[in-house]
Amino acid sequence: MSDLTHLDESGRARMVDVGAKDETLREAVARGEVRMHPETLRRLAAGDTPKGDALAAARIAGIMAAKRTPDLIPLCHPLLLTHVAVDARLDAATSTVQIEATVRTVGKTGVEMEALTAVSVAALTIYDMCKSIDRTMQIGAIRLVRKSGGRSGEFVSEEDTLHPPAG
After folding, report:
1. Does 128 participate in catalysis according to the annotation?
2. Neighbour-count burial for 93-126, b at 16+ CB within 10 Å, e otherwise
């Protein structure tokens, strides 16, 4: 039998059976960033973007995306999320918007994909809402920084201890 959990004995894609797993509190935190020109960041901070309050829209878009993850990522389990928070911090020194998503559930499988999806869509929303003033923006550094719960226990990204949290 293969060690690849999403393939059956014939090598066909399948959803993992989590029925025998215990329900535990699961949490995941993901981060990412949108790099832009300093003037774009200034306008974003002032709420002076052509489409309105891009940061508020990005927070809502990230929350909605976390809830829709199984519709976007093949083989993800639909989950009852108990908490989703998306925060954005403007960093003038690096001319970036630092995005952080925290997702929680009590369930049989983790919420890493939901947190990563929330960050990704929040970043895309900022890009969309600011692209008319800065098409050179770059989305990047999207990563899982922490997860807890389940059989594998706690994970904390060692390299992310250098990056301060958003908020």
Report:
1. yes
2. eebbbbbbbbbbbebbbbbbbbbbbbbbbbbbbb
Write the CA distances from 109 to 7, 48, 96, 131, integer angstroms: 17, 41, 32, 36
For 79, the 3-state DSSP assignment is coil
How far is Cα 146 from Cα 160, in angstroms, rounded to an integer? Answer: 9
| End-to-end Cα spacing for the chain | 45
From the list 84, 85, 90, 87, the residue with the least C-alpha distance to 49 is: 90
Helix (H) or strand (E) holding 31: strand 24-35
Strand segments, DSSP code E, in 36-164 are 81-91, 96-107, 138-148, 155-156
Q: What is the mean pLDDT of residues 4-27?
A: 71
* Structure-block tokens of residue 45: 């901070």
- Give me the catalytic one of 3, 8, 48, 128: 128
Categorize the per-residue pLDDT at 1 as very low, low, confident or very high, splitting at 50, 70 and 90: very low
| pLDDT tens-digit map of 123-150 | 999 999 999 999 999 999 999 999 999 8
